[in-house]
Design brief:
Blueprint (H helix, E strand, L loop, with lengths): L1 H24 L2 H10 L9 H17 L3 H26 L17 H21 L9 H21 L17 E2 L17 E7 L3 H4 L2 H6 L8 E7 L6 H6 L4 E5 L1 H7 L5 E6 L2 E7 L5 H8 L3
Parallel strand pairs: 2-3, 3-4
Antiparallel strand pairs: 1-6, 2-5, 5-6
């Protein structure tokens, strides 16, 4: 019974790692940018290696290649990923783990991410201890399948990887030039077509966001911006934020899980004009001087 359950856990783990690798493989550059958003920009060039490692681990678990050794590697990788996400979530304010890349249907709220990873770690540990001793699968067909898939994956990952994109106006964000009504923004606020808006999405838990709030305060002085609004996730404990910054902008509380589907990066600034998102700036809130010079005068 334990051996059968161990095999099932290996299959589940293999599928999870393969889906994770495939989702990131479709846009390796996006995954590199996510590593930067996590706060580890110096590791962004390792994105293709991580993607291929996930695919290799998943295939080995499904094709029965050295599964005990692979389970140790899978557990170690998952543990590192969980620690990295905890840091990004608590320090950088990143809520969307990006674990499955472009497969958005498999993205969950932070508590579900932690729960899922703990369950997977438990499954890997169980399988490692109770998986029966087995001879390595050396038949031609599995080895051929593994080799062909990894070869194709390496080629495709290289094709979609362009290194770390620069943030701000040089990076073509999918929300740019998108009508507001085609996004989830109307769920949080009522927008008027004859007004311009600077929307700052941030989390109270994001210490990096607090560093930029004085910049956001100055946005209300710009004649190019009719309304400055902060979409704030989390809770302003003891009214500390409001008391310290005395914000000159409107604060709109938002559901963290929902707003993370719009942008997983805190802070993110959206500039809206004529009911259309014109600019998306992630990871920083530029000074009003840089904002007007770099984004409003192009």
């Amino acid at each position: 019974m334990k051996a059968k359950l161990s095999n099932i856990f290996c299959i589940i783990g293999g599928i999870v790692f393969i889906l994770s690798g495939i989702g990131k493989m479709f846009d390796a550059t996006q995954f590199a940018n996510l590593i930067t958003d996590y706060g580890f920009g110096y590791l962004s060039l390792t994105a293709p290696v991580i993607i291929l490692a996930e695919l290799a681990i998943g295939l080995c678990l499904l094709l029965r290649f050295e599964r005990k050794k692979v389970l140790l590697l899978a557990g170690a990788m998952l543990l590192v990923f969980t620690i990295a996400y905890f840091y990004a979530h608590t320090i950088q304010g990143v809520t969307n783990c990006g674990c499955f890349g472009n497969i958005k249907q498999l993205e969950f709220a932070p508590v579900a991410v932690y729960s899922r990873n703990v369950v997977l770690l438990g499954m890997f540990a169980f399988a490692f201890f109770y998986l029966p001793q087995e001879t390595n699968n050396k038949s031609v067909l599995p080895i051929t399948v593994f080799s062909l898939i990894m070869l194709f994956s390496a080629f495709y990952t290289g094709y979609t990887f362009q290194g770390e994109k620069k943030k701000g106006k040089l990076s073509r964000h999918p929300l740019i030039e998108k009508p507001v009504k085609e996004t989830m923004l109307p769920e949080f606020y009522t927008f008027h077509s004859d007004s311009t808006y600077a929307i700052c999405v941030f989390s109270y838990r994001c210490s990096n966001c607090w560093n930029y709030m004085e910049n956001l305060n100055r946005y209300s002085e710009s004649p190019e911006i009719d309304h400055v609004i902060a979409f704030a996730a989390g809770e302003d404990t003891n009214n500390e934020f409001a008391a310290f910054f005395k914000p000159a902008f409107k604060i709109q509380p938002v559901d963290e899980a929902k707003i993370s589907k719009l942008t997983p990066v805190s802070p993110t600034v959206l500039y809206i004009q004529n009911d259309t998102i014109r600019h998306v700036i992630q990871g920083i809130v530029p000074s009003i001087y840089r904002f007007e010079k770099d984004y409003l005068n192009d």
